[in-house]
Amino acid sequence: MRDRHEHRDLRRIWLFSGCSQAELRKITKVLEEVTVPAGTLLVEQDEPGLLFFVVLDGTATIVRDGRTVAPLGPGNFFGELALLDHRPRFASVTSDTEMDLLVLRRRHFQRVLEASPSMTRKLLRAMAARLRETDELAYD
């Protein structure tokens, strides 16, 4: 796996946009950039979570219990919930197109959150928004 993300400006990605230069250097050291073909099962529902993903290019679909939940595209991220609560994956994610992804392994995830308070706050805000959307759908 070749590191190609060094040429990317992580501040252009919403999740990392508030990070300081020092935070970005720490994050960049542990991120891997990968390219996957269309049809790749990136995470599988009910399996342990070992990776966190940020979508750079391409699209994917989130499926839970056989039902399409949501699309994912550039700037979206997924996989954080299983890394935070150490429970199995909530849904499956499959690439619809070839995708470029930033990947953070479980062992680095906690250290990145501790090193980057601004990223942690954004991650929490995004998770809260997802929870509210899910709650609203449940009561419609």
Give a structural overview.
This protein has helices spanning 21-30, 80-85, 106-115, 117-138; strands spanning 32-36, 41-43, 51-57, 60-64, 67-72, 77-78, 92-95, 99-105. With 140 residues, the protein is α+β, with helices and mostly antiparallel strands. It has a single domain (5-138), classed as Jelly Rolls (Sandwich), CATH 2.60.120. The strands form two sheets. A four-stranded antiparallel sheet has the order 1-8-3-6. The longest helix is centred in the C-terminal third of the chain and has 22 residues, at 117-138. The termini are far apart. Mean pLDDT is 87; it is low at 1-7.
**What is the number of independent domains?**
1
Calculate Rg over CA atoms. 15 Å
Query: What's the architecture in CATH terms?
Result: Sandwich
What's the CATH topology name? Jelly Rolls
Shape: globular
Kindly state the number of beta strands: 8
Strands of the largest sheet, in order across it?
A: 1-8-3-6
CATH superfamily: Jelly Rolls
* Fraction in helix: 25-40%
Q: Terminal Cα separation, in Å? A: 45 Å
CATH class: Mainly Beta
Largest sheet: 4 strands, antiparallel
Strand content: 25-35%
Helix-strand sequence: HEEEEEEHEEHH
The helix/strand class is: alpha+beta
The chain-level mean pLDDT equals 87
Instruction: Give the count of helical stretches.
Output: 4
